[in-house]
Amino acid sequence: MAIQQKLETPTPPNLGYPPEEYERRNFNESNGALNVYFRKVTSVLGALFGVKGSRYINAPYGAFQSTADQTAAAINTAYAMTFNTTDYTNGITVASNSRITVTDSGIYNLQWSGEFENTDSADHDVRVWIKINGTNLVGSTGFIGIPSKHGAVDGHTIVAWNYFLSLDATDYVELWWETDSTAVSIQAYAAASNYPSTASLIATMQFVSNTL
Fold it and tell me: What is the reported pTM?
């Protein structure tokens, strides 16, 4: 069983009010309490900013995937990519199967990969882009050529890239796609004897920095 380490926030000492006249005992007690407190503060800061201090940092993250095939019913028509599995979540969740939603504002790194398949004998194009809160993100579209079927083997390619996004609390991000042929889909594949299954879509989101 893994042991989780965390830093305890030192409790400030309750020094009360000093007597009207100087008393050495009162001075020694207050000075001793402050000495203990600042030693704890120094210990916490040393652990946090030390070489391995990052193990105490709790930053938002999320990892999601789809184990289902995703198809286009019509050409040149926009469809939201969807997720049905949450692998990891901490302050980032998926709502309505497609909306990657953040709890805190900041700069986030969204990374994704999709497993595209083409069952046609000709190459076909796919476009993928970002929407934030339902609005297209200018400049976010990527164009991909999906190779044709070769013999009895369908054309395959895995596509992946990442975006840095500035988001406010409760904002959501979606991946959208369209294709010029219904022969193109985002496919999941079963495991075989010597390799594991393939997700049709994977996305991860990590907090990078605040925006102050």
Answer: 0.82
Of 30, 211, 6, 1, nearest to 107 by C-alpha is 211
- pLDDT, one tens digit per residue, over 36-69 is 888 888 888 787 778 777 777 889 999 999 999 9
Measured CA to CA, the distance from residue 117 to residue 129 in angstroms comes to: 18
Query: Of 152, 149, 144, whose CA–CA distance to 121 is shortest?
Result: 149
Contacts of 173 (CB under 8 A, 6+ apart): 99, 100, 101, 102, 108, 110, 130, 131, 132, 165, 167, 205
Helix (H, G, I), strand (E, B) or coil at 195: strand
- Whether the Cβ atoms of residue 188 and residue 68 lie closer than 8 Å to each other: yes
If we measure between CA atoms, which residue out of 201, 63, 203, 181 comes closest to residue 127? 181
Measured CA to CA, the distance from residue 176 to residue 178 in angstroms comes to: 7
Q: Give the residue carrying structure tokens 């028509």.
A: 77
Residue type, 48: L
DSSP 197: -
Separation of CA 175 from chain center:
13
Residue 186 to residue 205: CA distance in whole angstroms? 20
